[in-house]
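Give me the fold.
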Amino acid sequence: MTQSRAEPLTPEELERYARHIVLPEIGGPGQQKLKRARVLVIGAGGLGAPVLEYLAAAGVGTLGIVDDDTVSLSNLQRQVIHDTGAVGKAKVDSAAETIARINPHVAVERHRVRLDAGNAGKLVSAYDLVIDGSDNFDTRYVVADACAAAGKPLVAAAVGRFDGSLTVLKPFERGPDGEPLPSYRDLFPEPPPAGLVPSCAEAGVLGALTGVMGTLQAMEAIKLIAGIGEPLVGRLLLYDALGARFDVMRYRARREAAE
């Protein structure tokens, strides 16, 4: 992952990130990678909230937030980056204030816009990595297409009632076998018919579920930035909260798409 240069870690940062730095897989070089990283988070809601909080705590140097909404009382059951005093405030502002309290070393870039096909390319191209916490298929396809075109890794998750899913997308690269890595459209060739998948407001969602899936998104992002472990590329992680069960499904690029 191409990154800009960062200033050396200060004594305060060395103490703050001591539990990272003592890990051989992270160490000082890995923490520097986190400090240099520019991560764009789509949505400061149920998924975006834990993503932003954990990446801020981890020392990611720049976090971009895309969200055009304001905080409502019904958000607070799951969107833990906001509190009661933030009701009525722009989510990007509320999230930025929380991040500043967590870690003043993190720069926040606020994008109070609705992401669409017209602005997605420009937004995505300014960052090293994108995390999608949106709640609708239209935005998910736009984000995935923009990331594929710009050559940016994408950590994508979704939740519904008591279950969640997560994957990492790098369709601009090839796997060890020389074959193209799969895209979002290989996993979901077409969006479901309108009205088939109920919204969060219609069906409900368990608040802690978004915390589980958003934290897993943050974990995948850290792995990608630090260059450790095996990201969920070509694998879809499925979480059944009621059954307390994780499953992993493998998928690959469609042959016609690869050709």
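The beta strands are 38-42, 62-66, 107-111, 129-132, 154-160, 163-169, 235-240, 245-250.
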